[in-house]
Amino acid sequence: MNEQVLSLRLMKVGEKVPQDARLADIGSDHAYLPTFLMLNKKISYAVAGEVVKGPYESAKRQVAKNLLSEKIMVRLANGLAAIQEEDQIDTITIAGMGGALIRQILESGREKGQLKKTETLILQPNIGERTLREWLVLNGYGIVEEEILEENDKIYEIIVAEPMDSVHYSEKELLFGPVLLQNKTETFIKKWQREVKAKERVLGDLQKAQVVPQEKIKEVEEQLAWIKGVLA
Fold first, then answer.
1. Which among 161, 123, 120 is positioned nearest to 144, based on CA atoms?
2. Contacts of 210 (CB under 8 A, 6+ apart)
3. Residue 90 CB neighbour total at 10 angstroms
4. pTM for the whole thing?
5. What biological process terms from GO does the record include (predicted)?
6. Whole-number Cα distances in Å, 82 to 24, 56, 109, 166, 167
7. Of 3, 104, 112, 224, which sits with the fewest C-beta atoms within 10 Å of its C-beta?
8. CA separation, residue 120 to residues 12, 68, 75, 153 (Å)
9. Tens-place pLDDT, residues 66-76
10. Which CATH number fits domain 8-169: 3.30.230.10, 1.20.1510.10, 3.20.20.70, 3.40.50.150?
11. Segment 58-106, tens digit of pLDDT
């Protein structure tokens, strides 16, 4: 993967970015995504934010090599602190992290006024999609698009969210994804078949415990029933 050829996962994230967006890519690593999008004339301006010094330096070199230093600002900063008022960011991408960490970045940005709640959020959690959807609902974001894909035997979900006046999802929609539930692709089925096996193992371990955690058993049994119902 480089700035010319993205991984399937990042390519799909990039496809969700609106034409001529002013993009903040948080946790940008080598700045592959904003560089690719700028070279392909998909975005008009970008911030590549990175909290770790090594990837930050790599991103700076990548942007400079492609003569894009005036169009892509590479900043060493924690989360949404990479964004400045004058950037006029309208789209934020956060990809390749756990859902809990993405949630933490968004919440910190909200508390500090770095998240204006006018931006489109394009999020690709590696795990923990449900906790991310819960945060979106709590903070007035509706899920307008979702995609599930497989790459190198790993399954990823992409969530696109926009500010909305009234947002409500059921517990099942938070778990499976309200949009993904409407179109159960082969990859969707594969993911949840794997989850059935994983949860059945967890349930077996819980039932063997010396102190049986009844509440946890009930929770896992309920989720198993939901999954099997969706797969039926």
1. 161
2. none
3. 17
4. 0.94
5. methylation
6. 8, 12, 10, 29, 28
7. 112
8. 16, 23, 21, 29
9. 999 999 999 99
10. 3.40.50.150
11. 999 999 999 999 999 999 999 999 999 999 999 999 999 999 999 999 9
